[in-house]
Amino acid sequence: MEHYSMNLNLRIWRQKNKNDKGGFADYKVEGISSEMSFLEMIDVLNERLILENTEPVAFDHDCREGICGSCSMYINGRPHGPWHETTTCQLHMRAFKDGDTIVVEPWRAKSFPVVKDLVVDRAAFDRIIQSGGYISVNTGNAVDANCIPIEKDKADKAFAAAACIGCGACVAACPNTSAMLFVSAKVSQLALLPQGGPERKTRVRNMVAQMDKEGFGSCTNIGACEAECPKGISLENIARMNREFTIASLLSED
Amino acid sequence: MALNSKIPTGELDKKWEEYKGHVKLVNPSNKRKLEIIIVGTGLAGASAAASLGELGYKVKAFCFQDSPRRAHSIAAQGGINAAKNYQNDGDSVYRLFYDTIKGGDYRARESNVHRLAEVSVNIIDQCVAQGVPFAREYGGLLSNRSFGGTQVQRTFYAAGQTGQQLLLGAYSALERQVALGNVTMYARHEMLDVVTIEGKARGIIARNLVSGELERHFGHAVLLCSGGYGNVFYLSTNAMGSNVTAAWKAHKKGAYFANPCFTQIHPTCIPVTGDHQSKLTLMSESLRNDGRIWVPIAKGDTRKASDIPEEERDYYLERRYPAFGNLVPRDVASRAAKERCDAGYGVGSSKMAVFLDFADAIVRYGKIEAGKQGLENVSKDRIVELGKEVVKEKYGNLFDMYAKITGENPYEVPMRIYPAVHYTMGGLWVDYELMTTVPGLYCLGEANFSDHGANRLGASALMQGLADGYFVVPYTIGNYLADEIRTTEIPTSHEAFEKTEAEVKERLDKLMGIKGTQTVESFHKRLGKIIWDKCGMARNEEGLKSAIEEVRALKKEFWSDVKIPGGINEFNSELDKAGRVADLIELGELMCTDALDRNESCGGHFREEYQTEDGEALRDDEHYKYVAAWAFKSEGKWELHKEDLIYENIKIAARSYK
Amino acid sequence: MSKESFFSSSIGRKIAVSLTGIFLITFLLVHVGLNATILLNDGGETFNAGAHFMAYNWLIRVMEVGLFAGFILHIVLTLMLYFQNRTKRPVAYAKVDAKENSRWYSRSMALLGSLLLIFLVIHINQFWSDKLVHVYINGEQQIDAYTMVIEALRNPINLVIYIGAFIALSYHLLHGFPSAFQTLGWNHKKYTPIIKKLGVIYSVFVPGLFCIIALAIYFEFVQ
Lengths: 254, 658, 223
Prior knowledge:
Mean pLDDT of chain C: 88
CATH class of chain C: Mainly Alpha
CATH superfamily of chain C: Fumarate reductase/succinate dehydrogenase, transmembrane subunit
Order of helices and strands of chain C: HHHHHHEEHHH
Distance between the termini of chain C: 66 Å
Strand content of chain B: 15-25%
Distance between the termini of chain B: 42 Å
Strand order of the largest sheet of chain C: 1-2
Mean pLDDT of chain B: 95
Helix content of chain B: 25-40%
Radius of gyration of chain B: 24 Å
Oligomer: heterotrimer
Shape of chain B: globular
CATH topology of the domain at 267-421 in chain B: Flavocytochrome C3, Chain A, domain 1
Strand content of chain C: under 5%
Helix content of chain C: over 70%
Number of strands of chain B: 21
Largest interface: A-B, 79 and 84 residues
Structural class of chain C: mainly alpha
Number of helices of chain C: 9
Low-confidence stretches of chain C: none
Low-confidence stretches of chain B: none
Strand order of the largest sheet of chain B: 5-2-1-9-17
Shape of chain C: globular
Number of helices of chain B: 17
Largest sheet of chain B: 5 strands, parallel
CATH superfamily of the domain at 267-421 in chain B: Succinate dehydrogenase/fumarate reductase flavoprotein, catalytic domain
Largest sheet of chain C: 2 strands, antiparallel
């Protein structure tokens, strides 16, 4: 792999706090190595800003290995930037070339208010999980793990859905800011497993109700969420949730 | 204060049963009146918060991330051990116990480790019941794989995302308790001190990281589940936010810090590429199941891996450790890699890397697959193609991650790997009940020292975190709280809260007031370099002595020249980081002090003066078979307390994987 | 936790959109089938017989009410969804590179639908409304429906509007057809690819046939 160095023009959203109106600021960064990750490039910028007595750009990040779901940058018009199935922290600078202008914005959604600069509040996702994204089993209640065999195909599908990192790229990518991919991933995981059976109907209804209450937009099957999901969560999950929800609602007695 | 580890008497395999049978209980109506503070929401914290909430305690949980689901347990890849013996390969509770003690180079407490092995089986049951999608066989039963330092297959896994799946299980259990009103969650909050009243932990001072405000929280007990301190090395596989602050504050309030020099360097990480690097990425140990590690036989060989013929390759782990081969424990594998690179056999542009090669595994799996599909006269290319598919299914996400970071295709060329800091076995000293030396202050998971001795075996961190949270602390905490039912909620206007908050505020003001010229990050990098060079994979007396001096000087420089932009009462990541780095610097000094004091080599602690002729670690059981628990006296001054390790059930031997 | 009623939930509404959509898709098939009889070039005999049947069969008249209800429900619900969704992102992105993650027509269903709505008004005004009522006074054929169609489509302005509308319809269906099934939860490894293919065939073939008929009339292939 050929390594190279580049100079870039950055256009980054700056917003002091949630009440501030915010706006773009332009920065030039020089000598960026193609081997750096995108966040390391922002680190370079921030180190400079601090030394210039300017506030560094605030952004969420933690694991920097693509699994915690913290890093939430909308880069050049796409969540997590140009690479397929990649979080911002795993996006590397060889995706760009010398002289490029890169526009960096926070996730934009009514349900994800900006906290500062590129940091947004995704607590709505936690509240959706609180509404039913679990199996009610107290510690100590469990039977032997191999008591209930699970079809490998179903276990694999449940895992594929459970791989969601709760980053919110689906909401950020969706022109409607729908959270269906996130919610359906959890609903699917638990609906596919026999352990999730007893709460299957109440779970999907409660989670959809909470999702609507949080003010996410509704799904029109555009498919941007699936295309931008860093973990490749499938639209099949949304179909499954539609099915689960319809059956649960129509058969319910309330 | 003499250390009392409160190990129950009786036979090893009856201790926990006996303990549970006689431990004091708290009745349900009293549980509702008892408040518990939990700091950190990784595997240990989330599982403890959920379990204690289920029991009816009033729990307050704190995490610095924006959601409890983002704690760094999420990044654990390979798996979780449990003595289920589903594979019928001779596993048992005793064997898991034995492997863990031996893997830890005989520096862990027998009773704790045996309990860990006992409850390991319950963890798997609990997780499956929660909907954790572990890997399964076609018959629908759970699948296992093997990990370093063991000869059985006892590791349960969910592709390369086991930590994620386990954490999400614990997280959902936690969120369920939040919905039920038993747990109150404080995200984007950082604990900045423990409040003690009459010697007991009674609460914490936390900072709201969005508004910058300081908050006082009362609790009848405080549980620290705040993870390890690997970031003292700056570059590690830890998350950027991982820190020692909670444990360090507790340490300064009287909790002893045990074995700080026991740190784990993981053998298979993606090598450093340059000064810009902010963190290192692990390639799961599970890869050593199928990957073969090698370097060229010739020094300074610059040929491409594919151009080096088989007979000119040195599969040094297979050569040195025929019994365990590529699956030797982490400390052994890491040192062996360092040895080869230091001797000039390293590969890649930096020469600080070795190959992890899947070519053989691909062909092997390809042949098996061709056999399964009943194909005859299969071409070599087709076999390779089939083999790649199998490898992709097993390790696909890891290979993708490698490709993204390095820009190389690991299906075509061998991975380049090098050891990196991964885990810290040391931590706050706790007794059998997981209580620190401060009454009412508990420590769980990686943050404590208890189970892994001088080296942790792969897939045991997840096991310990969940064991502590789900199955240990819910029992042991009752023993303390049963005597606290008469303690009514102490108002946070109490002078102890006032005083502690004032101290925290003073420190923040002091940090902001320095207005120096160097960034927090630059100090962190310098700290990391000192510790990595002198207290890393190999240590010696001279280096450690100079490291202590350097860290002290760095501390002084930090407190006179650090530059922090912004203000206190606002979202200020630099201020958060500054507080953490300041604590890591202090810990760095203690780490080197401990390493210097331990004149032996064991597990992850390798003192160059103490090695066998063929370069293996040379333990000194006569003088160092103890836990070094350090009491904080004053800035830069510690007092050593020793907890003798008594092995009644295991015969101590030189650790051999040959 | 309070439960939402099915049709006040986001998914419930979507399902109503999907069901009405499928209903309209079915109707379209009947409509194009009837129109295609024009291509028989039999002077409108079959077409008029069909039109007569459609106008006088009581079952069809009842279904016509359903058809109107379907149209109205489909339009009202989608417009509601559209305007609701528009409030969900108060600050717009400065740069959006949506072509990398989705199709333009999937993102433009409201626009395409609105165009179709305008066409629908023109179309009904032209071919249905009071004129069709006048066609059959006392069961006697006053105006020949066939002639009416032929006359209308010989006008180039009408033709352009007509063809434009069917291009919009084609794209609307390209998204709408598979989307309706996805919303109903019919996503299956084996069958979804078939539905998608069917969707493409339908979206091209049906509007295409409407256009071919119109062009055949305009260029006087049918008399």
